[in-house]
Records
---
Amino acid sequence: MNHSIDKVEQVIEYRFMQRHHLETALTHRSVGSNNNERLEFLGDAILNFVIAEALYHQFPNVDEGKLSRLRASLVRGSTLAVLARDLSLGDYIVLGPGELKSGGFRRESILAGTLEAIIGAVLQDGGFEAAKAFILNLYQAALDEVCADRELKDPKTRLQEHLQAKKQTLPSYSVVSIDGEGHSQRFTVDCTVEGLGKKIIGIGESRRKAEQHAASNALELLLKNEE
């Protein structure tokens, strides 16, 4: 488990002082009574607050109803599941035999719940400010992309939808290199898109950010070629 904890800390970009919180966060209820449901409850609560506050400051002239819809688009299960998949959290979730056999590590609700539990674990481990910083880092790209006049769509989602609309093959991503150590790592990822004839590079402080960067570059080039 210690090896898995090391990997999870690396991908989520947070180092736990008390690792048992992270171990609990990764343990699904199908395993037994010592599971992540209570941490998920905490994570859900603070996630809603932090995202609400971020949107409040980001859109000072937007009314309460639209702010609520923007928050809902950011904290809903499908968005959380996308973030969890980008972090490859499914590789580290501890499941009971039944869930493991049925592929629970791919299930949207389990991925979303685990990510919320990790947020709760960070709150327990480092306090409110640590949890707030963790959430804002996790949602940095999403908050940058969100627009008051449309639903949240990150670059990977927009690229996928653009290709689907044209009935083209979906993009594939692969890590080219990882430079540096610990929290100073830099990921280089390439994105292969049918019709572009070359791989598009993205760079970021995590694999997720590098993939989003690559997707953004690929979409920009696709749209330019279609002009």
---
Amino acid sequence: MLVFLKLGGSLITDKDKPFTPRPRILTDLAEQIESACRDNPGLRIVLGHGSGSFGHQAAGPYGTRQGVSGPQAWRGFAEVWYQAAALNRLVVEALRAAGLAAVALAPVAAVTARGGRVGAWNLTPLRAALANGLLPVIYGDVAFDLRRGGTILSTEDLFAYLAPRLRPQRILLAGREAGVWADYPARTRLLAEITPQTFAAHSASLQGAAGADVTGGMDSKVRQMMALIRRLPGLEVLIFSGEGGQNVRQALNGETPGTRLHR
């Protein structure tokens, strides 16, 4: 069984404090992933993570997501790359300490964007990692863009390209929110599920995530995932909290915490 799992930037960093990881959370999440892999020997995971207070803080002043042109903007591009890679190193260190054979595959080195979306991606290394029992780790990163010069691709952007090609059974998006709220920011009514038929009724209530986020908030996340669900029959997406408890392990074991998106 192939599963895509994202550890959100708001979960693994403090998005209100620039360049601030949450090491205890990283350790706990890594241990949950390792436990799920022991529970399910046939489980294969493509792990992605956001850039949180690392990449988003660096990107904001330069508008890197919208395009890159000129010396200052390219210096900003390099700074975003550096900060995203710095956080990725912390994530991989936590996974390694938990006993997982994680291999980071930096998108900037393999992905070419076109107009802010993945245009081409050499998937040979990622496929080889999965075939040999490794845990490939991708993340929100800068990319050279044939139209914009440069851009930033979120983990959801990367998953959207990978899903039709690798065909995961589930996509698990772990953040700080318990799921998709019908009344954000009041947070009194959590949606148990969203389908293509009910999406329009809920779309007006979807709001951007709190904190700096240059790649879109909850609205963008849900829209991207619903588009995939329409394209890929049988795909299930979960949006849930990875904070506290054992939600990540449980989701990897087939349970459905948070909000379930499906056809």
